[in-house]
Amino acid sequence: MSKPGDQQLADMEVDPSAAAEEKPAVRFSINVLELMREAQMQHGLRQSDYTRYRRYCSARLRRLYKSLKFLHGRGKYTRRNITESTVTDVRYLHIVFYMAERAWSHAMEKKTAGTNAQQRIYMLGRFRKAVKWASLFSQLCSVKGDSRTSLEAEAYASYMKGALFFEQDKNIEVAMINFKNTRAVYEELGKYGSIENQLLCRQRIEEVEPMIDFCSHKLGGSSLQAHELLDTANDLLKAKMEAVLSETRSQQAASMTEFNWLGRRFPITNAKTRVSILKAQQLEKDLNGSATESIAADKKLGIFDKIFSAYHDARGCIRNDLASAGNAENIRDDLNGLDKAVSAVLGLRTIERNQLLVSIAKSKFTKHRDEKNERITKPEELVRLYDLLIQNTTDLTDLVSSGRNKNEEENSFIHEYELKGLAFRAERCFFLAKSYSSAGKRAEAYALFCHARTLTDSALQQLANSPDKALIQDLKSLCDNCRSNSCIEHATGIMEEESVPLKLSKGVSTMSLGDDKTKENKYLLDMLESYESAIGEPNTKGPCRIAQFPPPFQAVPCNPIVLDMAYNAIEFPSLENRMKKEKKGLLRRFWG
């Protein structure tokens, strides 16, 4: 139920005769963007609470009306229009501004709450009301405000118009033009003024950019991929973008009747299965497109997660169809083949994702620690990743080779991934040798480097006629690294063996027959004046001897025990003469 004051404010309308009146000489200045951002952030929109912000706008309007004595009658409502001649104080412009903000926040409140058909009509009505007040605000500022205020008011009105057309889902071109006008104004305003003003303009541009991209995408002229469009959208746009993209996928899926995999074709009858497979294929195109080099590794991992989710949805639909297929052998064979093909593609994408994780780990493995204290990959982590890759390739080849009648493409696919599995085993052996080397086990590290080189040579011989030049180049580099590291481990082991007699003779020379006590470990705090290492020998995992903790016990003198033995032998004098005597009355003397 609306309040009478709100009804009075809502019934205000623009007087078209305002343009004919005489312009005053006073020019007001309002930083519209700063006023709007401060009001929104301090009164609810930081938490996306549009109801609280609408109530603040209503309270602010009541205070402005009362301070300006711009009331609408007591008993009977009398409408009073705000015209150019009325604006003799900057607070009149604030009234029009907060009227637009209140209508916009009411529309956004209805939008976030979820609208049915009737509520959507009401929401669009509030957007129209916001556009009306924003247009009046722009008109009055062009006459009564300075140039910057007029420009900001024009950008504000363009944003409101674009939001209206955007929500109506009509005239998308007009909505995009209004949003682009808003962006152009704030780009120019962001070049001047204080740092705070430039930051506000930058934030406003970032809010408008996703809406422009969405309009361009809907018109078919966007250069962004689907996942990038969703990543740049805010919370209010994501639901609408998902709905539009799902509708587009459903239209494309209607023409998708079969799934091709290794020369075999499997019919797809379920619409949900088609949509899920089509979504995964579109994400794969975004991942393997021409702009894949510019995509960050974290975003690539996010796209892989979406691909896995889409293929899992498709497998769920296929297995539901299998459960309801009954005894129809032809249908069950097609569904089993489709399930196998989708599972194989899922395994293939899992291998690609794990290879991406390996490349990220390798880039951190070769780095040195810098001021940022970045975490460096340990060889054990790479061994674990290659274990996963070996398991993935084994599962994939087992899945593809499980059929009875395999065609030529399936045989070549199995052979290719068997060779990749051999390359993964060589890489795993190399990093396992690195792990033993870091632990100081020279003999084991040398043997593992030699074995990794043997596996690499075997893989290179089998890949001699392979078109995968990148894999061959990686294996050649791995072969060189195995050879160099094995030589280093061999030399280091010989040096350590040569130093063993020297250490033994040094230890024997320091032995003493008269001193049976073992050598105590000295701590750094106890030998600050002598230059001796407290860290220990290299390639050992002993703790650093900085200070002993907990601290050792120290002897502390205790307080003496006093036994008073003369107390019982002392005779103390009588004190009765010093005691206070009790006074008795006359009656007490007779009766005691």
TrEMBL record:
Residues 1-20 are annotated as: Disordered. InterPro entries: SRP68 (IPR026258), SRP68-RBD (IPR034652), SRP68_N_sf (IPR038253). GO terms for cellular component: cytosol; endoplasmic reticulum; nucleolus; signal recognition particle, endoplasmic reticulum targeting. It is found in: Cytoplasm; Endoplasmic reticulum; Nucleus, Nucleolus. Keywords: Cytoplasm, Endoplasmic reticulum, Nucleus, Ribonucleoprotein, RNA-binding, Signal recognition particle. Its main location: cytoplasm. One of its GO terms (molecular function) is RNA binding. The keyword Cytoplasm applies. It comes from the Eukaryota. Gene3D superfamilies: Signal recognition particle, SRP68 subunit, RNA-binding domain. Pfam families: SRP68 (PF16969). Component of the signal recognition particle (SRP) complex, a ribonucleoprotein complex that mediates the cotranslational targeting of secretory and membrane proteins to the endoplasmic reticulum (ER). The SRP complex interacts with the signal sequence in nascent secretory and membrane proteins and directs them to the membrane of the ER. Belongs to the SRP68 family. This is Signal recognition particle subunit SRP68. The lineage of its organism: Eukaryota, Viridiplantae, Streptophyta, Embryophyta, Tracheophyta.
